[in-house]
Each structure stands twice: as structure tokens, then as C-alpha cells.
């Protein structure tokens, strides 16, 4: 199978056809119409075999994951996902693998009403680059730089699950059978909080998705907002799977340092607190307040059962961390 046959078979004409796409796959560029009074949000991520996923990860799960992590970036900005382009580097053409991989991509794209409008294919070590686009009403995008002293810090769901799934495989950690499938699914099939991100517009003061670890990603908000924070580690939500699989003392690394859960971390002023809790509950999202913004310059104070908890952050960073 040659390049253009691959494109025609697995991408062109598959998935949804949005009315705002004037020209999709098949030309030198795609042409789209951006709604009036909206800004275009653009994010790009590359996932590399052996760095971001195991070489033997199921193709359908990989197709879902590569798109989901980009949609999560759009969610963190409060954007509505619209279009994506895909650059796919393959060591060889495996028809069965491609069918499963693209099926995983098209499933999540259709669920979020996203059209694949172009990209590139080439030969080489397996890697996938996604450029995702979305729209957000002008001036309404959520940013990392808006947190203010007194704002409350929230997360949209449990943390540490994907990290435990990864380390269970790397270190041979024994996970009870009734929890292993849940943890693996959390890593393979992350759910971008798209609806929650849009619901936060106009109410939250800042937001970010948790991809590199709670403390690392909170640090980005604190740096850009020029504030500090206090976190109650015992208030951070954890799943039954994680709490039943590890002693409490061993859970903290996964809760605080590991990423890949793609929950949203956001701050909200006191006067918007109850309104947003109710609004997000209507979307089926049970949010949890885990701390508060304080004055200072980027410091994170961690409390455990009301007492100071000495802990060193070390979220994921390329060129300094080992592979998956």
C-alpha cells in the first residue's frame, strides 16, 4: 500500500463532515471557516513509542489516546474542539493495525464532533503528531495566568490511576483483578473534560489539564499567575482501585507527581464557587476542592491531615525522565 492509498482508505471520507470545513483531505491545505467573534485555539502534541506509550499498546486504544490528549488541551482552554490534522510515522504498513488505530481515532472524533481535515504520513519509528484546533468566544479562553489570592483550587476527578497502571507493568506491582481493568482503561482511554472546560468559561480564573502531574501543572498556574498555593493532599480524590491497591503512604507519588489522567485543575473565586459546583454537577462531573491560592511566588505548601507534609515534586519532563 502506498501513501495516498493509505490516506484514501483510512482517512478521506471517514468520520463526520462538519459544515464549517470548506475543503478537507485531498489538497495542499484544508480550508475552514472560523465562527464570527471567536478565537482559534491550536494545540500540537507528539506521542512517541517507548516514551508516551508501550510498543504493544492496542492500536484502537492508541488511536483514542493520541486524539484525547490533544482534546484535553482544548478543554483546559474552554474551547470547543472542531478540527484535527494527523502526522503519522510508521515503520511499515500493517493493514490490521491501521484499521484498529484509525477506528479508535474516528470513534472519539465523532463523539466530540471533530473532523480530521489533513496531515501527513511517512516511514520511520512509530510516532503520531496531532494538531488539534478549536474555537472559543473572543476573550473567554481559560488561561494559566488568572489565578488570584483567595481563589479555590479544584480538580475534576481522581488522580493517580494512569500512573499506577504504568508502574504496575514496569515494576510488576500486583493489582487486584477487579481493579486492573479500570486502571488500564484510565491510561488507554482517557476522557478529555471538554464539556467541563466550556462550563468553566466566565467562572474559573485559570485552568490547566493534568498531563505532567498535579504539582508540576499547578506550578505552571502559580508561575504565570505569580501566586502560591496550599494543597490538602488528603482531599485529593482517588479511585477505589488506587486506594485498594496501595498503602496510603505509597499513594502520594501517584496522586501528586504522576500525570496522564487528563483531569482539569482550575481555580475559582469565592463568589463563583457554588455556581460552578452546581453547573458542573449538571454535566455529571463531581469536582473536588483541594486547596487555595495564597500570596507568594510559586510556592506550594502541602498539608496532610492538617499538618505540613514535606514532599518534593518531580513531574514528567522530557530529557530528564525514563521512558514508559
Keywords:
324 residues; alpha+beta; 60s Ribosomal Protein L30, Chain: A; 7-stranded mixed sheet; 4-stranded mixed sheet; 13 strands; 34% helix; 24% strand
Structure overview:
By secondary structure, the chain is an alpha+beta fold. 34% of the residues lie in helices and 24% in strands. It has two domains: 3-137, PurM-like, N-terminal domain (60s Ribosomal Protein L30, Chain: A); 152-308, Alpha-Beta Complex (Phosphoribosyl-aminoimidazole Synthetase, Chain A, domain 2), CATH 3.90.650. It has ten helices and 13 strands. Residues 316-320 have low confidence and may be disordered.
Q: Order of helices and strands, N to C?
A: HEEEHEHEEEHHHEHEHHEHEEE
What top-tier CATH class of the largest domain fits best?
Alpha Beta
The level of helicity is 25-40%
Which whole number gives the mean pLDDT?
92
Q: So, the CATH homologous superfamily of the largest domain?
A: PurM-like C-terminal domain
Question: Kindly, what is the distance between the CA atoms of the first and last residues, rounded to a whole number of angstroms?
Answer: 31 Å
Number of domains: 2
The largest β sheet comes out as:
7 strands, mixed
What's the Cα radius of gyration?
Answer: 20 Å
Q: Major sheet: order of its strands?
A: 8-10-7-11-9-12-13
State the helix count: 10
> Which stretches are poorly predicted, pLDDT < 50 over at least 5 residues?
316-320
Q: What portion of residues belong to β-strands?
A: 15-25%
Gross morphology: globular
Structural class: alpha+beta
- Give a count of the beta strands, DSSP E runs of length 2 or more: 13
Q: Quickly give the CATH architecture of the largest domain.
A: Alpha-Beta Complex
What is the CATH topology descriptor of the largest domain? Answer: Phosphoribosyl-aminoimidazole Synthetase, Chain A, domain 2
